[in-house]
Specification:
V4R, globular, 8 helices, single chain, BchJ
């Protein structure tokens, strides 16, 4: 990963979309509780508009699991990932690029999309490490994932990434794309691994 001035900072979607998804599923009071629990109460008045410290996203995910329990937290995190994908499609990925990807054969589109994701990975992995293998099925690897950093679980926890990747692949590569986390650092695996099928 290339070093840059934002090292250790990630995009604010990691906060904003989790709050949106939690409010949709559990109401405004749950968002207030979450932000207080994660010591991010400053965002109660206004959500962040610039890059945030990766520690904030880590604290938010840990607080979400503590507040809801792992199954409900995973559902909220996945929805937040889907919402992040929608935001990226609406605001960050040029329309011309989206049109091109949609007309390419799926395997070629996947290769192009993964290259683009790699170029912007620092915005969502922070000090983690992103890698990908475009052969079929495409594989995505995240070492030191922010979503599960410091956690131990019997199941994969990086549903935020699953939701984001799945939305992008379904919209830009193949409408039946499904992303599954097949290895997770929280389970003791060396890195988090996501497999894309269609």
């Amino acid at each position: 990963m290339t070093a840059n001035i934002h090292h250790g900072r990630i995009g604010p979607n990691s906060i904003i979309r989790v709050a949106e998804a939690l409010e949709a599923a559990h109401g405004t009071a749950a968002v207030t509780e979450l932000l207080n629990r994660a010591e991010l109460s400053r965002y109660l008045d206004a959500m962040p508009t610039e890059m945030v410290l990766e520690g904030e996203a880590i604290a938010l995910q840990q607080a979400l699991r503590a507040q809801l329990g792992i199954p409900a937290a995973r559902a909220v995190a996945r929805d937040a990932g889907l919402r992040t994908g929608d935001y990226l499609l609406a605001n960050r990925i040029p329309r011309s690029a989206q049109r091109l990807l949609k007309i390419l054969p799926a395997r070629l589109a996947a290769r192009v999309l993964l290259k683009a994701i790699r170029g912007n990975a620092w915005t969502f992995v922070g000090t983690g490490i992103f890698d990908a293998e475009p052969k079929f099925p495409p594989m995505i690897f995240i070492t030191n994932s922010l979503i599960c950093r410091g956690e131990t679980a019997d199941e994969p926890l990086c549903d935020y990434y699953v939701g984001t990747f799945e939305r992008l692949f379904r919209q830009l590569v193949h409408k039946k794309a499904v992303v599954t986390e097949i290895a997770c650092h929280a389970k003791g695996d060396r890195r988090c691994v996501f497999e894309v099928h269609w």
